[in-house]
Amino acid sequence: MTEGGYIKINRGILEWEWYGNINTKVLFLHMLIKANWKEGKFQGIDIPRGSFVSSYPKLSDELGLTVNEIRTALKHLQSTEEITVKAYSKFSVFTVNNYCSYQDINSQITDNSQTDNSQSTVKAQSINSQLTTIEEGKKERREKGKKGRSNIYTDPEKVRHKRGEYGHVLLSDDEIERLGKDYDDDMAQRAIQFLDEYMQMHGKSYKDCNLAIRKWVIDAVKKKDSENIKQVAYGSSSTVDKQQQSREMMYDWAMSKEGQDGS
Predict the structure, then answer these.
(1) What pLDDT, on a 0 to 100 scale, did the predictor assign at position 103?
(2) What residues have CB less than 8 Å from 149, skipping those under 6 apart?
(3) Which domain holds residue 69?
(4) Pick from 136, 157, 168, 212: CA 20 to 30 A from residue 11's CA?
């Protein structure tokens, strides 16, 4: 099914969110090459165009990646709906979701042209004669491709959303997840709250809230925790006043810390 012929790769893939991830990119290109160019059957199961039969170990052997690396790359592609995977007892059917959109061209290669050398030659000459037209229409198709397959160019996890009570902190889901891994989820949420309140009180704004959190907000929250522990240890008849005073001192400290780091 996959022998002979060729596949098309749009230059728009350079803007694809997974292009910089070597394993994911290599796996996706491998799947495009392996995908059946016409419908078929395997052990009584219909295999549509754009799909192929394989397994995790087989993909691992073909690409020189570990099975875990294959699993991770497949999760990436599934998360952005580039592919679907249907598992059976002894194999899986992998499908490139927009295969027809990627591969269809004005000059169609017929089934006979795949097996008949003379017809292949005629078709190749026909394709060459249309290269100028294809080149002229490339820009238009690229724009249509972006609209029709926006999932290739936009990663929902990288879109920044408003966070905190006042909505001043802009962070993507991916950035929050990484903060949680680096500092733990509770610290990440308290840092977001601290920065949100700080920006509300002082009219501050940041181009990169993630960077600000990492450069000085985490330290500010830790210092605030330390001050709270001291208050609890020594006690006070005016706890509310002490807490308010401590909070104001922490915001003043944060301003000075921010100035030192140049955030």
Answers:
(1) 78
(2) 98, 101
(3) 11-152
(4) 157
46 forms beta bridges with 41
Clarify whether residues 34 and 87 are in a common domain. yes
Query: Is 96 within 8 Å of 50 (Cβ atoms)?
Result: yes
Q: In this structure, what token pair is assigned to residue 133?
A: 């037209």
Question: What Å distances lie between residue 56 and 71, 94, 163, 221, 251, CA to CA?
Answer: 7, 10, 39, 45, 53
CA–CA separation, 121 and 127 (whole Å): 10
Say which range, 27-31, 160-164, 250-254, has the weakest mean pLDDT: 250-254
Q: Hey, how many other C-beta atoms are within 10 angstroms of the C-beta on 35? A: 23
Q: Are residues 128 and 222 in the same domain?
A: no
Residues 249, 140 share a domain: no
- Choosing from 130, 152, 174, the residue where a domain stops is 152
Whether 1 shows a pLDDT value over 70: the answer reads no
| Of 88-102, 166-180, 230-244, the least confident | 230-244
Residues 72 and 145 in one domain: yes
Q: Say whether both 123 and 75 belong to one domain.
A: yes
Q: Are 73 and 65 in contact (CB under 8 A)?
A: yes
Question: Does residue 119 share a domain with residue 39?
Answer: yes
| Boundary (domain end) residue, out of 111, 126, 152 | 152
Residue 55, both tokens? 């397994």
Identify the helix (H) or strand (E) that includes residue 161: strand 160-163
Report the predicted TM-score, pTM, of the whole model to 2 decimal places.
0.41
Bridge partners (DSSP) of residue 169 are: 163
Q: Structure tokens of 34?
A: 């392996």
C-alpha 203 chain-centroid distance = 33
CATH for 120: 1.10.10.10
State whether 147 and 162 are in the same domain: no
